[in-house]
Amino acid sequence: MLIYLRVLKESFNFALNALRNNKLRTFLSLLGVTIGIFSIIGVLAAVDSLQREIKGSLSALDNSTIVLMRFSFGPTDIPQWKREQFPDVSYDEYSYLKKNLPDAETVSFVIGVPRESIKYQDVTSEGVDIGAVTSEYYDIEAFEFSEGRFFNESESVSGANVIVLGHEIANNLFPNTTPLGKQVRIYGRRLTVIGVLKKQGANLLGNSRDEQAFLPANFLRRIYGDNNRNVWPQIVIKPEEGVDNAEFIAILEQKLRNYRGIKPGNINNFFVNQLQGFTDLIDNITGQLNFIGLIISGFSLLVGGFGIANIMFVSVKERTNLIGIQKSLGAKNRFILYQFLFEAVILALIGGLVGLFLVWVISLVASQFTGDFEFVLSPWNMFLGTAVAAVIGLISGIIPAISASRLDPVEAIRTGM
């Protein structure tokens, strides 16, 4: 064990001497490894950060959540002309499923409507994202309040003139006073503010509850009616925990088919969209991005590997006389082999660590200029970068190390003289 520690120490000293004595050559040789590790870990860190941000945007909703509507979240084989004939889901269907769908923890009716302006006295917030939902939506999405509450079932059913404001909307309309109990004007009606959501910040998708306002769905039904193609009704369903997802969806589809009177053999005229499918799609896309990035970055590592191999062949040639002396004094082949292998790995690790440092610095700088989006260099990616650099050094140094270990001591001394 001690001899290997001694070899490691000597090899580290040789590597440092190589760096000091041949600065330009070593710099050019290690540049490939540095760029390769920087490229690979940079891609992995960027994709991981992107994936974390997107999933964080969806974290308020459980992956098992189902959205029932006439649109599909993803690609579909149903032609567009036929999809355009699909009817919207209705409030009556929401009421039916709420009463008759087994194993459903929560069922909520949601209406997607255009943005609207909210006014209080002489202050106006324009382009506010309106969430028209029933009271059950509070149990589906993780709302947190800085003041007040969400509207209850009675207010939801009656379509009461109440409103819940996002943090930024409340600050804009009521900069120096509490919004609770105040009346704002929207859709030509006066609505009483009953709650203000906690500050959330914008996510990668550009969405933020800070710039949203939530109203009872039945209030918006009085405004738009039930047959307006400019709005997007949805039924959002959260199954009970532990329920078999495929079986639950099959029952849901059959319930709605029966309610709509769809004949056997005819296709569904609605879409059952699963958030789990959406997150799986995100995983698939980020996986492909990782793969493409690794392939491209692999070429940089290949160049770096050739650079390490080149510097090791030169090192063997320069130290041929020293190798002959070491072997004549009793050094075994594996001692010489390990000596050059350690040197190659150490040189590659230096290049890899420089690459990791560059990724870390750039991630810090980039995070400062991207608002709420944060680039993250995970411990796993740091370990992966270090391991890849070590493997590249090992592979690149194996042939020069073997050639050095097989040198004949007499010929090596004569050649070096």
UniProtKB/TrEMBL annotation:
Membrane topology: Multi-pass membrane protein
All copies of domain MacB-like periplasmic core, residue ranges: 26-254
Domain ABC3 transporter permease C-terminal stretches: 295-409
InterPro entries listed in its UniProt record: ABC3_permease_C, MacB_PCD, Macrolide_Exporter_MacB
Localization: Cell membrane
UniProtKB keywords: Cell membrane, Membrane, Transmembrane, Transmembrane helix
Domain of life: Bacteria
Membrane-spanning residues: 27-47, 291-314, 335-362, 382-404
Similarity annotation: Belongs to the ABC-4 integral membrane protein family.
PANTHER family reported in the protein's UniProt record: ABC TRANSPORTER PERMEASE YTRF, MEMBRANE COMPONENT OF TRANSPORTER-RELATED
Protein name stated in the entry: ABC transporter permease
UniProt organism field: Salegentibacter chungangensis
